[in-house]
Fold this protein.
Amino acid sequence: DEFDKMANNDRVAIHEAMEQQCVTIAKAGMHVTLNARCSVTAAANPKYGSFDPSLTLAKNIGLEDSLLSRFDLIYIVRDLTTEEIDRKIATQVLRQAMQRLGGEGSRRGVEYMHSSILER
């Protein structure tokens, strides 16, 4: 998760593991190369807060093409918002919360205040 927020030195390390299928460790005067046989599943958020279809994938998430090319499959999941769909989702979430709480009578204090704000 949050592959886009990875530190630069970590990106270099994972790039080596994905490209050469080995990991190099230099610690306590020892220099060791280990085989890396694993799958990588990663998730990244758009760099500017929302996905811009006019930009390339690399620019949208701020990763180099050389690193992205190491993935066999890349899926883009977008939330195409419309007021009508968002309102239906919010209504359903509130309905489920009210059923869990047993209707209006059992809510109190901050819980009641927040639910009344959301209902508007």
Summary: The beta strands are 22-27, 30-35. The chain is about 45% helix and 10% strand. The CA atoms of residues 106 and 112 lie 9 Å apart.
